[in-house]
Amino acid sequence: MKLMKYYTVGLILLSLVLITCDTKNNVEPTFKDYFIKYYGEDGNHEAKDFVVTNNQEIIIVGTVTLGLNKRVYVVKADQEGTELWSVTLDSDSNELAEDIEPILEGAHAGNYVILSNAQTAEDVLETRFTIITATGVVESRHTLPSRLASQEGLSITPIQTGGSGGFYLAGRTTDWDAASASNSLPTPPDIIEDLLVIKLDQDFDTISFDRIGGSHTGSAIKVIQLNNNRFMYAGHWDGKTDGRLPDEPKIESNIFFRTFENDPSGVPSLYSGTLSLHERLVSVCRSSFGIEAAIATQSDDNGINRKVFAVTTSSNFSTVLSERVLLGQSGEYEAVSVSAGANRFLVLANEINAQGNRDIYLKRVDGFLEADLDLKFGSVNNDDRGAAIAELPNGDILILGTMELAGQQDKIALIKVRPNGAF
Amino acid sequence: MRYKIIVGLILLLAGYASVLAQNNRMDCEQTLSLATEEFNAGRFYGIPALLKPCIDRGFGREQRQRAYLLLTQTYLILDDPISAETSYIEILRANPEFETDTALHAIDLVYLSKKFTADPIFSVFGGIGLNTSPVRVIHTINPWGSPISNNYTLRPGFQFRGGIDWNITRELALSGEFNLLNSSYRKSQTRANHDRVTYIGNQWWMVMPVSIRFSDTKGKYRPYGYGGFAVQWLVSETGRVTNIKTDEIDGGTPQSNTRESPTLRLTSFRNKINQSFFVGGGVRIKTGLDYVFADLRYSFGLTNVVVPTSTYGGQTPAIEFGHVDDYFRIDNLALSVGYVHPIYNPRKLKRARTKSVLKLINRSAK
């Protein structure tokens, strides 16, 4: 009887113990919704850009380096970061991924266009476009006809024309511009970087080809469609900021925004930046709350003392609302990407430490560049860098970057955090 | 020279004392024999006085037991129960495991013995041993977009144990322990085609187990089994991550590159307080009044060792090495050897266990 009592007490205690046991069902799998996921297999993988599909799947584009070869690498992941498919694009030369965008109109509507630049010979870049489906099937590849020895696409913008659609390509060329009427400098430098704004039809045939810059240096970073037939392209160059062309010698680059309908080669409509330092535009975006934003890397003539310079403008890039150094009051930073959320902008940058290694830095700001969130990812000993950023409809934040793991390999990293920055 | 003289003198004195004690014991053995003869001859009154000098100074442990046994029997015959009880207590002090036997001892002595016990209320024990820690994964966390393969393997550890048993009955005891335990485990992950990441973790635990033990109480070899619950404090975890990246370039021979991390402290990524349930068994081997034991115990970790929110973060091994902890419980299989010292406590029982003797007396009276 006494022993029975002991057994009963023992069984009760054992039951209590087992109730306290952590199991699959009572340990919350928070890691599923918020995570860092790496992508890539053999070789080193550099992230470049991503798009988030309507069902919140993510298509990432980057470059894989295997031995001496560089190829465009595309991977799609679901909301939990699980890889759905990946594909490495065939190429006859080294090819670097640059941009990916969804196609809304025309023959390729519903698919995605990937912009890449292939190095077909020394100092010769060739711009390529790849149409890929949501399931990872490469439908077609196109090469921009080579008008200049070096033409580098920096972004592609699918446009909506109410019909067959088309694309705007923004970029730059370093080809010598001997024939430019605006090349009026007495002693022009050997290589001058000029802006390229190229309009393409749905089959990537050239509709218009504009090389802009003359004796000045600059790049077109992005074309944005403002409405049916009005566009804006943003970039940087070292032309005078008063809007007069031909211009006078000046060496500091500034951000510019130019709205246009058909001819992008006219006068920039809005400038931002400083007179004594370079601001080289890196990323520009529109928002749904009536304010636009752009970020640039600010530096001195030698390219050092780098800071993140941000500017916000009123709707349609008409007037500057706020402009200032956002990151870099101490230490060095380089701008990476800006993206609009529901009511704030997400600024992605790289913080550069004394050893030259980078960390991924996120700053969330409002329309007047007041910050409410700062986040950093990376290890001191490794070179980790950002690529792109987006806010999901529920406020969660997606960050794309490249992580150097164990000091031996680069891998594409997708980071998903809550709206407050926590995992 | 002076030291040599002092040491010599000490040795001489020690030798002299030893010889003196030996002589004493021999003299007292003769006294004990004489007292036994007196008892057998029915001359009881002189026995206490005869034994007193030797009891006071000369008996060895075994001689004391015999002397007090003789005195107890003498006092019982002399109808002096108080002195008999006092003498019986002294028997138990001389030999706590002394038990009367109806075949050897008079029934009144057996009856008296049932009023006393020397069973230890508490026993203390200590031990050392080896252990290994199987990992039981609650959730696999894949830091890679593509599938991975994880493999946990055992590694050796060691532990120190000490504790106290509360002997509720002769068979049943409640044990409380303190263990200092070093354990280790290895996680190997294959990912990204051929890449391999290995993490070896080394943990220090302070474990406080409480268990109920059921033991055999007879014979030289006394098997036992037990079960219980432990609160475990993870003092620290350190580890190293080894990344072996293997690339196959253009179908050629795979090329590998190995990098090992410095020692990482992962303590802050761990739940410090954990619980486990354990079962075990072993054997106690009687050596004199004490025991040596060999014990095998398996502890089932009940709680997730990993802080759920620590998987990712700005400064985690996920960022630097691509290493992510699964959510896991950690078990432990430990083999220990040690020593048990029962703290014997000769005492009179509040409730004498005389029923069986009375039955025996009644039976023999019929």
Summarize the SSE layout with pairings.
The complex is a heterodimer of chains A (about 425) and B (about 375).
Chain A: H1 2-19, E1 35-39, E2 44-52, E3 58-66, E4 69-77, E5 83-88, E6 94-102, E7 112-121, E8 124-132, E9 138-143, E10 151-159, E11 166-173, E12 194-200, E13 206-212, E14 218-227, E15 230-237, E16 254-260, E17 270-272, E18 278-285, E19 291-299, E20 307-314, E21 320-327, E22 332-340, E23 345-352, E24 358-365, E25 371-377, E26 385-391, E27 397-405, E28 409-417
Antiparallel strand pairs in A: 1-28, 2-3, 3-4, 4-5, 6-7, 7-8, 8-9, 10-11, 11-12, 12-13, 14-15, 15-16, 16-17, 18-19, 19-20, 20-21, 22-23, 23-24, 24-25, 26-27, 27-28
Chain B: H1 2-40, H2 47-57, H3 61-77, H4 81-94, H5 107-113, E1 116-117, E2 122-132, E3 135-139, E4 149-154, E5 156-167, E6 172-191, E7 195-215, E8 221-247, E9 255-260, E10 264-265, E11 273-287, E12 290-301, H6 317-320, E13 327-330, E14 332-343, E15 347-348, H7 355-365
Antiparallel strand pairs in B: 1-15, 2-5, 2-14, 3-13, 4-6, 5-6, 6-7, 7-8, 8-9, 8-10, 8-11, 11-12, 12-14
